[in-house]
Design a protein that fits this description.
Length: about 325
């Protein structure tokens, strides 16, 4: 089968090539998926670039990644099932993650076929395209993990989403809106119309306005971008407001090539035990249950995936570069 193979760490256009490799076989609890679409997200860039370097000690591989085929989010058709799999059969259309746990490693999705744990998949709703479904798993699971109490929200909660037009941000905007929140979305001027279409009641162009100086206060600041420190947003939180940071290293543009955002995240987690505005670390819900929740949100129309562009396997390096450029509106997709 054809697959994108990563020969080392570095710029995506230089280290990724399409090669013929052996088709994998599903083991116990696994399924073989014929890939119809796979998404490009920041964790894929991290593993291909090998940055921050600490990720190489966290399962990616010291000198080169193992496995060698990138990609973790997939949508496709079940080609075969392994022993012990009863919830799926050949021919079922599914979407989900190909890796369990830590995302800073390759998952084999940029190929014609990939093996995945059955519990990491869900049935694709018939009205959702393969390209749309492939954009949901990682971004959706991150959003659900960091918005754990949506069902208990009272209407009118004021939510600020920073970096609202990316994969995680676009889902957070929609989930908050369907929970009855008044959502303010912050992003580049070229993406504000998208945010309005997703249901944001107010949009802010970060190139023109500083949202912390607008006189508004918020019950939740959902900081996907992670550019500014927590201290910048604390003054605009209500008395019981919460600050949630997703954050990433902006594809190496912000330096921190050794440890990345790890020290900052550890610091915020430690501070959460004395600062009620920071969420304390909690165990993630089961992937099977979370994927079922995303399936439900897709099926009933509360979640509409945003696909920016679609690239062929041979263009995987270009696709990752497009994401890293910051121009993408929503998710970027690779198809075999």
């Amino acid at each position: 089968m054809r697959a994108v193979v990563q020969r080392g760490y570095g710029p995506p256009a230089e280290v990724l090539r399409v090669r013929d490799v052996c088709r994998p076989a599903p083991g116990e609890g696994e399924v073989l998926v014929r890939v119809r679409a796979a998404s490009v997200h920041p964790d894929v860039w991290h593993v291909v670039a090998g940055l921050p370097r600490v990720l190489r000690l966290m399962g990616s591989g010291l000198r080169r990644p193992s496995p060698a085929v990138p990609g973790t989010d997939v949508a496709g058709t079940i080609a075969a099932v392994g022993a012990g799999v009863h919830q799926f059969a050949a021919g079922d259309e599914v979407f989900g993650e190909t890796t369990a746990g830590m995302q800073w490693r390759n998952g084999g999705a940029y190929a014609e076929y990939v093996v995945a744990q059955a519990d990491g998949l869900a049935t694709k709703p018939s009205d959702t395209t393969f390209e749309q479904a492939a954009t949901v798993p990682t971004a959706g699971l991150i959003a659900l993990l960091n918005l754990p109490d949506l069902e208990t929200w009272e209407p009118g909660r004021r939510v600020l989403v920073i970096g609202a037009a990316g994969g995680v941000g676009a889902i957070a905007v929609q989930l908050a809106r369907t929970a009855g929140a008044q959502v303010t979305g912050v992003d580049h001027s070229s993406k504000l119309d998208l945010l309005r279409g997703l249901g944001a009641s107010r949009v802010v162009d970060y190139t023109q306005d500083d949202v912390t100086q607008g006189g508004e206060s918020y019950d939740l600041v959902f900081d996907v971008a992670g550019v500014r420190p927590y201290a910048a947003y604390r003054p605009i939180l209500t008395a019981r407001g919460r600050y949630v940071v997703i954050g990433h290293d902006h594809f190496g543009a912000r330096g921190r090539r050794l440890l990345g955002s790890v020290p900052r995240m550890i610091g915020l987690m430690a501070r959460s035990f004395v600062d009620p505005r920071l969420p304390r670390p909690t165990a993630a819900p089961g992937r099977r249950e979370s994927m079922a929740r995303l399936q439900e949100l897709l099926a009933d129309g509360r979640l509409t995936p945003v696909v920016d562009r679609t690239f062929q396997l041979e263009q995987a390096g270009e696709a990752i570069g497009h994401l890293a450029s910051g121009a993408a509106r929503g998710r970027v997709v690779v198809v075999p």
